[in-house]
Amino acid sequence: MKKQTDETLITEEGFELRLRPRAARPVTIHIPADALSTLEKIAAGRDMSVEALLKLYIGQSMRQEIAKLSADRVLEKTEQVLRQHISSKDEVSAILKEIRIEVAP
Prior knowledge:
It is a single chain. The chain is mainly alpha-helical. The chain is 61% helix and 8% strand. The chain has a domain at 33-103. The longest helix has 36 residues, at 50-85. It is elongated. The mean pLDDT is 89.
């Protein structure tokens, strides 16, 4: 198996960009023509390919979903700990509701 190494590039703005090659597999999807047209316009405006734009969107959505799943797990564990120390289900619910309000975007 061939060892993959990171590649470091410098952007026009002077930022370091580290690329790590990852295994990829092709996927075929059907996109409505009008949506594809819009994606092409957005990609052109960002000076990138439609494929790169789709990868960007997928990556952003995945990170958001992973963050949400992680936050949900933290709240579940918080609820378990609170229930061990507080006998009132209403009080535990009120605390969790307050936490959700405080961390809401």
